[in-house]
Amino acid sequence: MQSTSLLSIETLKQDIHAALKAWQSGHNTPENLLESLLLVQIERQKREQASDHASLLRLATNEVLLEGINKLAKQDEMAANILQMRFPDNNPLLMVANKFNVSEHTVSRMQREAIEQLTRIIAHEEEQIRIRHINEIESKLPPSSYEQLFGLTDLQTKLLAMFRQAASPWVVAIIGIGGIGKTALADSITRQIIREFLFADVIWLRVEYQSLSGRSTSPNATYEYIVGDLARHFWPEAAPDISNFIELQARVRQQLKTRPYLVIIDNLETQPDISFLQAYLNDLAQPTKFLVTSRARPTESTQVYALTVDELSEADSASLMRQHATGIGLEAFAQATEDDVANIYSVTGGNPLAIKLVISLLDMQPLPEILSNLQKGQSGASANLYKYIYWQTWRTLSPQAQALLQAMPLLSEMGGSTEYLQTISGLTETEIWPALQELRSRSLLEVHGSLQQRRYGIHRLTETFLQTEIINWPGIPSETT
Q: Which of 24, 163, 171, 154 is nearest to 86 (CA)?
């Protein structure tokens, strides 16, 4: 596994010249095979060239060069002909000079100019395919739920270092309580890794524990879900046959062993699951790597490298408070004193989600009242803190906003459009927008998408609060962390 960041034009030109000279030879190097180019990597995948056989590797490189020469022919036919005769056709310089009735020195100069033109063509094609590749992978990721991360720089540095090397640890777990920023950290790392082209593909899976019936999955069912989801990613044209799970698992394992993939498993929350899956994930790894987010820490005997996301420091919490207040238009928070910030920090414990919810409540309630109520509701458990904050926020909502929020658990992980939200909530067109704005101002709504299209969703803890406290779906335990 090595970084394939785009080379400088001068270095790329040297490598392309080396690749042309090696067209007919059996002497291969990473440079003259142009292994740093995504164009070459994709060409190998098209041919299903899992083998390192020299001739097969060379064919993929030659195909990329030939496509570049064909594009060059549309711009400068003579330059393309010179490259074609010199390298694919393997003609000596003198023969090419005689063909065009010029001196060898002139042909040599024209060849250098042709290689420069070819380099620019291939560099442009490489840039375009990288942009498409990034966009394609990112389109399959859940939308980001944050604008800026605070207090996570050291963890980001450690994680990036782990995924930039083709060595252990092969399975990494981000551990922390609910709302602490595990998914946000994993998302930021994933988006950075995508731009470095370290892996053949990046696959994001999210484990869902609760169905509408309220039943939770078993560890074995969770593993079957993961394998099935990987199969659907690799072979989207055919539904995975879970009934023959051993064979399906073998196919998925073989695919993961063929090329390095990065697989993110988000929301692997229970101790039984992470204990059960640790051996299976290590078996599926190498060269593939796994990144897991979980509230449960793997046992010390495992081969899972665990990193803990701690609560924010008071300084980082203060930065988050001010950034979030600005983001929701809470101008009054600009008057907050250091004591006000310290008091909010003392009741939220530096938990990012709790901080956002408390700041959002300031739009309706004075700070002393919020702090007093939260201090009364605290009993040492973050679950109770969240429940108390959510109940305080719920009571400030209009009936329309409550109706919309109650419908949000019906959405998929990717969220829903305003038209779909209107359908599932029963709100009219004139009611939906004020309700959306109200939920947004209370930090109960996550907004994703582009200028042309917006999608809306909620945090997992918000969803759990609704299921356990408001909707009361059967069989779902009253736990909000």
A: 24
